[in-house]
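Q: Please design a sequence for this.
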């Protein structure tokens, strides 16, 4: 199957053909850094981190840009409320954003351009739009004239006249109620920059046009962002960019679903609503990563198709913990078999693995269906566990069976790696183990032997005390026909 991508502009899946063969440019709208990042801010970065990894796996040279909006009404208002400079506030929350991305393993972003570093680019594009008749200055502001763009509204299928209802123009300098700001005249006490129209600052939408075109060219391959940005932000970006260049702005528009959280209404009833800073129902990204770990959060965010809403509840996270444990337990099980002493040969398991590997790739080729790809990984994990059970390799330690199981598990880890998964497991193991790892292993095995002898002597009180004591320090035992195994957690 060739790669197909759902395009929000055409509302259908299309074969993926980048502007330049073999190269892909991706622009993802980043945060307005006026407060600490919440889990909703991580959805797009984690999804597109997996998308870039897959495109790279497919052989593309990918450049991925995520902007930082560090000048905006919300920033100005929050900085004034806190009594600190806007720049100081923006830098603080930008650092927090970067730290959470790093901890989640989102390390494929090539650049984080800031709006305030691109004022000259913004002024240049604004001037070009005025020169071409698509924008007009008024009282120090510059407005984009939506009536001059015959395609305006095509991304969200909206008509200009529908958007003008109830909007006022008096005192704004606007010609039409739906016109939007490219440049805003400075107000007393606000940050400002010199421009041909007087001191002021950029509008929100023009920032992204300027930065995306500077780093990725006048026509992007993929423009991404949350569904809530589709209007007005992306609609306005598209209009001003294409009016300026006369070229298509983005070949593919990709919008991820919103994060929804279950909250209790005043009536006492539970309801699902959009997670939003303005509503005040956000969940800290830092707290989630620290509490549940980066592996689980990545798994949680990728377990839903990117175009669908992500339901955030304690129940969903609990289910994700149980589901992800399937992989960690399998990896531990295969490690206990020991290192293979021979190459894996052709076998029924090898053929099953290849079928699942192709199904994984087919899922990713179908609009980057990470949820479907993860489901295939679970099926493959089940096949490997079934092979271990049926072959009796844990009892016989047959070299060929060990090699087959190890090879299959390596493929499973490879597929997970394409999504950025499983990278933290070995790191956590190394940190937790250190120089004392062998000693811990030997002590636990010794206690298992003590318990086995106690059970043999029908001293069940001692046997139960050993199990309980180990459980209290985070070690669980599992009695199997071929002996007792242990694991953390």
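A: Design:
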């Amino acid at each position: 199957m060739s790669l197909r991508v759902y395009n929000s502009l055409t509302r259908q899946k299309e074969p993926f053909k980048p502007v330049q063969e073999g190269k892909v440019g991706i622009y993802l709208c980043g945060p307005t850094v006026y407060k600490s990042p919440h889990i909703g801010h991580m959805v797009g970065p984690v999804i597109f981190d997996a998308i870039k990894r897959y495109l790279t796996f497919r052989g593309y040279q990918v450049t991925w840009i995520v902007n930082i909006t560090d000048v905006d009404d919300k920033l100005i208002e929050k900085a004034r409320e806190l009594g600190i400079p806007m720049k100081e506030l923006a830098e603080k929350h930008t650092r927090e954003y970067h730290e959470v991305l790093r901890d989640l393993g989102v390390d494929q972003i090539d650049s984080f351009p800031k709006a305030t570093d691109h004022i000259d680019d913004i002024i240049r594009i604004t001037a070009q739009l005025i020169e071409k008749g698509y924008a007009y200055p008024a009282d120090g502001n510059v407005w984009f004239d939506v009536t001059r763009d015959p395609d305006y509204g095509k991304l969200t299928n909206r008509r200009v006249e529908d958007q003008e209802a109830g909007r006022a123009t008096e005192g704004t300098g606007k010609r039409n109620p739906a016109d939007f700001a490219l440049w805003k005249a400075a107000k007393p006490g606000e940050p400002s920059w010199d421009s041909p129209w007087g001191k002021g600052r950029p509008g929100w939408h023009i920032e992204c046009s300027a930065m995306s075109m500077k780093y990725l060219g006048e026509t992007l391959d993929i423009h991404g962002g949350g569904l809530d940005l589709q209007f007005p932000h992306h609609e306005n970006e598209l209009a001003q960019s294409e009016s300026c260049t006369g070229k298509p702005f983005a070949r593919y528009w990709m919008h991820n679903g919103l994060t929804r959280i279950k909250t209790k209404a005043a009536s006492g009833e539970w309801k699902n609503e959009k997670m939003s800073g303005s509503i005040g129902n956000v969940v800290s990204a830092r707290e989630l990563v620290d509490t549940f770990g980066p592996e689980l959060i990545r798994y949680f965010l990728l377990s839903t198709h990117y175009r669908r809403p992500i339901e955030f509840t304690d129940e969903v996270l609990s289910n994700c913990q149980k589901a992800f444990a399937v992989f960690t337990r399998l990896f531990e099980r295969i490690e206990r078999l020991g290192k293979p002493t021979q190459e894996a040969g052709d076998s029924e398991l090898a053929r099953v693995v290849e079928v699942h590997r192709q199904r994984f790739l087919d899922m990713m080729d179908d609009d980057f269906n990470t949820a479907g790809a993860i489901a295939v990984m679970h099926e493959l994990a089940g096949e490997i566990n079934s092979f271990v059970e049926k072959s009796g390799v844990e009892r016989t330690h047959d070299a060929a069976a060990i090699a087959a199981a190890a090879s299959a598990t390596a493929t499973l880890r490879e597929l997970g790696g394409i999504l950025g998964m499983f990278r933290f497991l070995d790191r956590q193991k190394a940190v937790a183990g250190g120089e004392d790892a062998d000693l811990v292993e030997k002590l636990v095995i010794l206690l298992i032997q003590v318990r086995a002898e106690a059970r043999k002597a029908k001293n069940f009180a001692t046997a139960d005390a050993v199990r309980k004591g180990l459980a209290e320090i985070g070690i669980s035992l599992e009695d199997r026909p071929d002996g007792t195994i242990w694991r953390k957690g």
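Q: Thanks. Anything notable?
A: The first strand starts at residue 4 and ends at 7. The chain has three domains: 4-257, 260-430, 437-488.
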